[in-house]
Design goal:
Elements lengths: L5 H5 L9 H17 L4 H19 L2 H24 L3 E3 L8 H18 L4 H19 L5 H14 L3 H21 L2 E3 L2 E2 L4 E2 L8 H26 L1
Antiparallel strand pairs: 1-2, 3-4
Helix pairs in contact: 2-3, 2-5, 2-8, 3-4, 3-5, 4-5, 4-9, 5-8, 6-7, 6-8, 7-8, 7-9, 8-9
Amino acid sequence: MGYETPAVMAGNPARHSPSPWLITALILGGLYVDQRFVHWGQPLVSAATWVLLCHGLARADALTRLRLMVCVVFAGGGEIFLSLVWGLYDYRLGNIPLFVPPGHALLFALGLTVAARLPGWIVFAVPALAAPLVLWQALTGSDTLGPLFFGLLLACMALSRARKLYAVMFMLALAMEIYGTALGNWRWNAEVPWLGLTTLNPPLTAGALYCVLDLLVVSVTPRLQRWLAARTV
């Protein structure tokens, strides 16, 4: 599982389509529209998200295209489990919005682009800055789920060499979680089902789930690519 995306190592963000500015604008504007316009906001945002992803798939190289498609599949399954089965959080309509799985793929593409432009010390800075806050929240009882999720972040960094990607995704996802929960697009439940733990809305360590998603993507994609290549021989 020690695979690192070539673009992260090479520092070539141009490989990751669509534009990071379009992705950022869609996230900020789309979540606002979804919350502000109750009846037609979600279908409109879902359509725009899929259009942007399809545009990116058409422009991307073969490896990036495969990564984004794998990300959509894993994200869809993860959302069903985390929200509808486990009940960690609930979307405002009690569903999984159709913009969420492709949105995860777009955020993954954004993370690749940002990671390629940042220095290596971010790998150590992100967990070092997060650790005291996670410990304090656990000791005060406000977020006893935090250490578990923080462990997921560390596990991702230990299992794969794409550590800069995970550090970036941890922060990007937290920013999106703060924005989305502030608007009311979704809400994390204070009591964690099954585990008897507590968490915040959103938890500081919510980005660890995105790191797990990205670990699955960067680990599975090269194996899938080799399997597809063998099938075409």
